[in-house]
Amino acid sequence: MGRLTFLGTAAALPLPGRANTSMAVTADGATASLLIDCGGDTYSALLRAGFGPDAIGDLLITHAHIVHIGALPSLIESLRLGGRTAPLRIWGLPAVVEVARRLIGVYDFELTLDTWAFPVSFHSIESSQRVTLAGMEALIVAMDHSVPSIGLRLELPGGALAYTCDTQPTPRILELARGAQTLITECTFLHAGEPAARASRHLTALEAGQQAANCGVERLVLVHLGGDKVIGGAAAEAGRAFSGSILVPNDGDVLTL
Q1: Structure pTM?
Q2: Cα(70)–Cα(136) distance, rounded to whole angstroms?
Q3: 110 — phi, psi (to 5°)?
Q4: What pLDDT is attached to residue 115?
């Protein structure tokens, strides 16, 4: 069966034991995995989870906020130093791909990708586009965040996996996750922080539960957790609106798909 590895589960501010949210998805029998976002020390998180330098085939960057893209130059350099030889394909909205190129360009004296030990390629995608990522069929759907942001839906043999990434409530979540087995949502605030959630276009735990119920999913997973109070109260608050299984994972947890 496939597996989902939570490399980081914190929101913009890392916590002791929790790095910025990122994850790796591995299809059953696949030779390479999909990495979603690269904020913080992603390479160390990959190593702790048992991923070697050639394990990631595709990197999807959901949006251009620092905590989702900022470690890209370091990740590429670490992969080189770790002995990577496999191609790396980087995907994102056109504006995100442009930011990725500029980030790498800052270090062009060191990241001379035209002479790199492994090829790095950039691929622009748009909302409603279907692409193949690490051998999995994926649907890209625009979300509603403070900068252009995308979620994705992966069609897997055991049921669909949907991930909103950063967003406030939007009808597009239903488009993304209707009937999915597992919905992963960001959960930056509790209900008491709803004014701040609206100002920054994030979800509360209660809203995450409402979205899960509306989409008819079996399981809700809460990540991008905005502090200890959110971690402690998110599951109970989401459970006020959603009667299915609710998980609040720790960094390094693995979910079978």
Answers
A1: 0.97
A2: 25
A3: -115, -45
A4: 86
